Amino acid sequence: MKKSTFALLASISAIAFSPVSQADINEDLQNICTIVKNDDKSELRKKIKKVQDDYNLRLGDYYTGISCGGSSLIRYAMENGATEVGTFMIKKMSKGDLTQAESDGQMLQQWAEANGHIASPIGQELLARIN
């Protein structure tokens, strides 16, 4: 009887104190592409704050794991002219994160130059931040 009670308590404790599942953060980030496309800086700020508070993650920690139509968040902002959101994300990320090669092997600056976005306000913010 004592063994079964102990096993039950151990199971309940394991469930109650288990780490947050990956599905939870995916749910919290599910509409982030729409927020970026709509250039809704206020909503993006809320989303980033919620993820930071709930999971102790900064934007740079999950940035590479998000793809919007095959593009990273900042690339997606550039493609959609989402200036407020794009410049906000650049300010929130470290220089190291901004200069890393993305999934296609190109750094953000190289991609922006090759696709005509470097002269945009987001491209100019990127250059100012990494230089």
UniProtKB/TrEMBL annotation:
Entry keyword set: Signal
Pfam families assigned: DUF3718
Tree of life domain: Bacteria
Signal sequence bounds: 1-23
InterPro entries: DUF3718 (IPR022193)
Record protein name field: DUF3718 domain-containing protein
Gene source species: Bowmanella yangjiangensis
